[in-house]
Amino acid sequence: MDFSQHLRECLDREFQRNQLLIPAKVAAVGASLCLKKAYFMAMIDHMPNAHTDVRLGREGTAVHDALAMLAVPVTYEYFRQRQRYDPSAFLEERLEEIWGRHADVVERFSNISTSDYRLTRERVEALLRGYLALVDWAHRRGLISEHVLVFPERQLISKVVKTGDEVRSLPLIGVPDVLLVDGKNSIIVDWKLRENQNNAMHCLQLAAYKLILKEALGVDPHAFLIYATPKRKETKVVSINEEPPDLKEVKTIKGKCDEKLVEIAAGALYSMAFCRNTLRALVKSGVKLKAYNPTRGNGENKYPCKYCPYLKLCVYRFSRDLPEEKARLRKEMYKLYRTALRKKSEEYANLVNWDKCVEFDEVEFAEPNVIKLVKNFSGSEKHKDIMRYSLGRTTVYVFLRDGLPYPEAGEAPKVFSPALFGRYEDDEVQYSGGRLTAYVRMVSPTFAIRWIPVYLLYKYRGAERVWKRVRVCPGQVPMNIELKALAVAENALVKHFGQEGWFLETLKNMVMAGSDEY
Ligand code: SF4
């Protein structure tokens, strides 16, 4: 059986009952580096809601966070000044003042402070130089106007699964650093703080975002990586699979990668999670995805296995020749993983409860972290229509009519992109004189990176139609807790196998007892 047939059969058989969204970054690792590594990331590490890589470090996270807070005001400030826009002076003269305008909200609700911003300012400015050069280019080319909508850290989700003659599968979730949408035109921008041998991975990550957006908008988006590395002290803009724009202020090059590969990798990762013999089918297929033998790697220095954080786990997990006790542990762990995976899959299947969505006529920010929703009822509406707005005190996703797919009533869209999520304050729903008001409160400083930019967008573009007619749907935020807990237990056991100690014994007994339960 060839690989495409293997994937097709796996997805056809499993996807209805086992859903899994593969993070775009993970699919890119699978497409560019090692499928096994991507599998470990998908199962163990990667929180689908994380906006930065867990390994990015404090400084990298601070740079990303500062840029998320600045992208909206900087873009509209550019349009305000575009007649006399001077690229070399703009950031130097204006950035401090732009930051200062919203610093109180950012400091109050998020994890980033003004001193973080100042410490990272050099890199932030270097990256914004590339960004503004792109905005200016896109504006001059007629791709975007002052009506463009700017979405930093916007979640894109595609549940499209295609298994035609060609290998195609697309259960993907991604969060581009900035998304610009103007009508059918869209531009994806991702900040990169490191350049290394794996730039192909960055290219493929953007290729994954492009796939989702194209599915959503029907038009191929433009996508760019912006690099500002301390070593080179230069800003570089890489266009993904198209000729680079002519930007005077920064260096530009063309990035090339096989977009199809990222789709195949997403499908292959799904198949590794739910179907048997995926790697065997892959090895025989000639498809250009790599999955190394961890004990050999590639070449004399055993790249990339020698430097892989999953090396020990990988040897144990994929070995055909394990000592009996380890083999038994692995078998029992598999059972537990399957249970945790089923749970994760349920989370994805029930991510948004489309049957319970309610529509409002207006939305406004009552406070930076609270939105007020208004629904006007005419005399003909029935009590049961009004009662539908009692959603309970629950997590909700808010969809705006902002150019990205808007879920219409009675529809479970395959591609969607919530603008906000937060907690629906059911006890604060009020109805009087045909007017119903409800409130959604944004949650946790970790997620402020998502909603503060929307609040800023509202500040700059509050008068637009975007804030009319919004759809609010109950749902849940996917976590990875059970899988992570299992991975931690398994890692500890694999690393210290054969050693004595009450802790390891207890852990081993728990695994064995736990798997017996299921
Ligand atoms: S050790 Fe090698 S084969 Fe295993 S996950 Fe890492 S890179 Fe892939």
From TrEMBL:
Which top-level group of life is the source organism from?
Archaea
Instruction: Using the record, list the residue span of the signal peptide; answer none if the entry has no such feature.
Output: none
What are the residue boundaries of the PD-(D/E)XK endonuclease-like domain, all occurrences included?
38-314
Please name the InterPro entries in this protein's record: PDDEXK-like_dom_sf, PDDEXK_AddAB-type
The record's Pfam families line, in alphabetical order, gives: PDDEXK_1
Q: Which cofactor does it need?
A: Mn(2+)
This one is known as PD-(D/E)XK endonuclease-like domain-containing protein
Lineage of the species this protein comes from: Archaea, Thermoproteota, Thermoprotei, Thermoproteales, Thermoproteaceae
